[in-house]
Amino acid sequence: MSVSELEETAVAIRRSIVSMLEKAGSGHSAGPLGMADLLTALYFNILKHDPQNPSWEGRDVFYLSNGHTAPVLYAAMAHSGYFPVEELATLRKYGSRLQGHPERSALPGLESTSGPLGSGLSQAAGYAHALQHIDKDFTRFVYVMMGDGELDEGNIWEAAMYAGKYKLRQLIGFVDRNYIQIDGSTEDVMPLEDLRGKFESFGWHVLEIDGHNMQAIIDAVGTAKAVGSRPTVIIAHTVPGKGVGFMEYDHRWHGKAPDAAQAAEALAGLPRAAGKAQNA
Amino acid sequence: MSYPLNPDLHSDDVQREPIRAGFGRGLLEAGKRDESVVALCADLTESTQMSLFQEEFPERFIEVGIAEQNLVTVAAGMAHAGKIPFTSSYAAFSPGRNWEQIKTTAALNDLPVKVIGSHAGLNVGPDGATHQMLEDIAIMRVMPNMVVIAPGDSIEAEKATLAIAQNGAPAYLRLARDRTPIFSTTDAPFEIGRAYLLREGADVTLAGTGTMTYELLIAAEILAAQDVDAEVLHVPTVKPLDEETILASVRRTGRIVTAEEAQRAGGFGSAVAELLGEKLPRPVRRLGVDDRYGETGTPIELLDAFGLTGRHLAATIAEFIAGLDAGSDR
């Protein structure tokens, strides 16, 4: 898929996020919209996976550690063929496979359960460590998406130390660096800077990119794979609510879903593509 | 009745060994039988007896450092990749400190992550209340999918370790630090989810888990001298509970006393009381630690002070039965 096709797909995924949240009547808006480009790059370019055979043994593994951003994961999975796009309308409904936070036993293709913050990096590290026994030619990679607010959790830094110690070269982390969490700015709630320096001091290779630049995302992963001696974290600077003007940069949209009128306004600003990308 | 008890059980110099030693041997054997078994430890390798495994399989042993949250979540990731991870620390820290991670990443995902809580109960002795884990049975048995086992001695701990290595489910294994009397034998059966009749009696059922089963056997002998004919059950698996064996015994005796080296609230006795309350309402007396913390002392001083040695248990049980027979103590 070309960069422009990836960009069109990201718009389709944003449209799905807005629609599913509006139908659900609750959920998180800002994070999923901000991460749409990252998840599009992952599911349509970076990950080695087979949506028809989610437990394929040769697959790359993706963990969503900040599980409250489930809508972007579900949208990326649906658009890439794990399940019908129509099923996105069941988000958060009774009996749905699309639980409010991702649950491994509910939906094939989910590698783990998440929601309580801070435990995704450890699981990814555990998987990457196990791969040192299983995948001796380093053909598989383990990716984990973390929110920046979630880096307040001590479990993250336990895992960061661990991955540094064991030089887990198949572990590639993303930090969705949007500077917001529920109570406000990450730097007011609990300052994270110098974030690059923190990870570097734990033995990680650190890259910083514009998390809305498709080519930059793809190139960063290519670099991370080539490092070959250490885990890499890609600090992806994103705009919370990206693509929906009235949500952008506003932390009040962290944990809120749009109503019908807000959703209509949001969708009007996210034009359907004329090209090949699916629209929902 | 066929449970082969240690014939020297009532001797003053009954053989003793830390329950955790049986775990160490069981883990080594589990590692030999299945190469997907890995062991993770939080800086207590010798104390939790993972050292045997570490020496034999250094490439399958992972030192996580003093980080119990990371301990179990790394294990969950390894289980995703097909490993059978055993994690160990003191019970006070795992599952004491990392309960939510165990729930979300191991139990909810129904992964074969094994949580080994060593140094549980009062018998950590001099370390004091901070290190005496008394709440673990309660917090682990309320977790769906989780198997909870408190072996009675080191021989049984070895069998239990092998059993959980093979059962494919998340499991909590509760171990004791102190040299604990051995009441079972290598020929004794162990199956997850089974309770065992150790001594037949008509007057009362005594059901113990973990280290308390031995004390109940001692108590039963003391009671026999007082013409109280006590039946003794050993219930190493607190969850899933062997309802059938417990109910059958209480149908015969009409009353039950439970004992555990843990908080009474929410623990093994509570599980038995829940069962009887719903299926066979009969008098229940739960013995354990009664809503207080432990303190510093030798293990025997503490068991004595908390009324959990055979002699104390016998006195409490005799009182319970006398009260019931007098028709008052309900």
Short key terms for the protein model shown above:
heterodimer; A: 280 residues; alpha/beta; Rossmann fold; two-stranded antiparallel sheet; 12% strand; B: 330 residues; 2 domains; five-stranded mixed sheet; 11 helices; 14 strands; 37% helix; 19% strand
Q: How many strands, what sense, and barrel or not for the largest sheet of chain A? A: 5 strands, parallel
How many domains of chain B? 2
CATH superfamily of the largest domain in chain B: Thiamin diphosphate (ThDP)-binding fold, Pyr/PP domains
Instruction: Tell me the CATH topology of chain A.
Output: Rossmann fold
Element order of chain B: H for helix, E for strand: EHEHEHEHEHEHEEEEHEEHEHEHH
Give the proportion of residues in helices of chain A. Answer: 25-40%
Measured distance between first and last alpha carbons of chain A: 19 Å
Would you state the CATH class of chain A?
Alpha Beta
Oligomer: heterodimer
H/I helix tally of chain B: 11
Q: Major sheet of chain B, described briefly?
A: 7 strands, mixed
Can you characterise this structure?
Chain A is an alpha/beta fold. Chain A has one domain: 3-Layer(aba) Sandwich (Rossmann fold). Chain A has nine helices and seven strands; from the N terminus they run ααβααβαβββααβαβα. In chain A, the strands form two sheets. In chain A, strands 1-2-3-7-6 form a five-stranded parallel β-sheet, with helices on both faces. In chain A, strand 2, helix 5 and strand 3 form a beta-alpha-beta unit. In chain A, helix 1 runs antiparallel to helix 9. The longest helix of chain A is centred in the first third of the chain and has 22 residues. The two termini of chain A are 19 Å apart. With 330 residues, chain B is α/β, with parallel strands linked by helices. Chain B folds into two domains: 166 residues, Thiamin diphosphate (ThDP)-binding fold, Pyr/PP domains (Rossmann fold, 3-Layer(aba) Sandwich), CATH 3.40.50; 130 residues, Rossmann fold (3-Layer(aba) Sandwich), CATH 3.40.50. Chain B is built from eleven helices and 14 strands. A seven-stranded mixed β-sheet of chain B has the order 3-2-4-5-7-6-12, sandwiched between helices. A five-stranded mixed β-sheet of chain B has the order 9-11-10-13-14, sandwiched between helices. A two-stranded antiparallel sheet of chain B has the order 1-8.
